[in-house]
Amino acid sequence: MINTLADTPPPLTKRLLFADQRLSVVYPVIQKFKNIILSDPLSITKSWVGSDICKYKGFYCDAPPDNKSAIALASIDFNGFQLAAPSLDGFLDQLPDIALFHANSNNFTGTISPNIANLPYLYELDISNNQFSGSFPTAILGMNSLSFLDIRFNSFMGSVPPQLFTKDLDALFINDNNFMQRLPDNLGNSHVLYLTLANNKFFGPIPRSISKALSASKEILFLNNMLSGCLPYELGFLKEAVVFDAGNNQLTGPVPFSLGCLKNVEVLNFAGNLLYGEVPEVVCALGNLANLSLSGNYFTRVGPICRRLIMKGVLDVRNNCIIGLPFQRSLPECMVFFAHPRLCHYRWTYNYIPCWLPPFSSPNVLPEMAPSPS
Question: How far is the CA of 270 from the CAs of 25, 230, 248, 294, 370, in angstroms?
Answer without folding.
Answer: 52, 12, 7, 5, 24
